[in-house]
Design goal:
The protein is of the alpha/beta class and 164 residues long. The chain has two domains: 52 residues, no CATH class; 112 residues, 3-Layer(aba) Sandwich (Rossmann fold). Helices cover 26% and strands 29% of the residues. The chain is built from four helices and eight strands. The strands form three sheets. A three-stranded antiparallel β-sheet has the order 1-4-5, with no helix packed on it. Helix 3 links the parallel strand 7 and strand 8. The chain is globular. The protein starts with a strand and ends in a 7-residue tail after the last helix. This is Small GTPase superfamily. Keywords: Nucleotide-binding. GO terms for molecular function: GTP binding; GTPase activity. One of its GO terms (cellular component) is cytoplasmic side of endosome membrane.
């Protein structure tokens, strides 16, 4: 698998990747990426807009504007924090209620590198995902475990445009 992308450097107003002045994060809440994902012999051209809704409680009425028309919803919870799993369930319901009927939903248990601190079982995540027509995966943002697999699975599940 290969991936190419261009990340905007918002602080300098130019494309060029991550901004080292703020720890490498060009914008902690919003990210836009355009690129090509190569899976074997097939290439998927994409435009991706990532919006963190975790910071939106005070803007809850505006949240549907961010995900209306979205093709994919990735709902992430912390496997060491049961409260984050409950909040993830809220966002699943929101996306099911306000999102596109054919939205691809992924439930992601993050911090898989912290197995000794786990408080949400793998089975709980799998059961909830299956019950809600989602796919489930556990990842580690710290070690990058299963991050590529997450995006590969999303790419496989996205609807393909009809040939004209």
């Amino acid at each position: 698998m290969g991936c190419s992308s261009s990340l905007p450097d918002r602080s300098a107003g130019r494309a060029g990747g991550l901004n080292p002045d703020n720890g490498g994060d060009s914008d902690a809440k919003n990210l836009r990426v355009k690129g090509t994902l190569v899976l074997g012999k097939a290439a998927l051209f994409f435009a991706l807009s990532v919006v963190s809704l975790i910071q939106l409680p005070r803007y809850a009425a505006l949240a549907p504007l961010y995900y209306r028309g979205a093709a994919v919803g990735v709902i992430v919870y912390d496997i060491t924090n049961p409260d984050s799993f409950s909040k993830a369930q809220y966002w699943v319901k929101e996306l099911q209620k306000h999102g596109s009927p054919d939205i691809v939903l992924a439930l992601v248990g993050n911090k898989a590198d912290l197995q000794d601190k786990r408080e949400v079982s793998v089975q709980d995540g799998m059961d909830y995902a299956e019950k809600n027509g989602m796919f489930f995966i556990e990842t580690s943002a710290k070690t990058a475990d299963n991050i590529n697999q997450l995006f590969e699975e999303i790419a496989k599940r996205l609807p393909r445009p009809s040939p004209s």
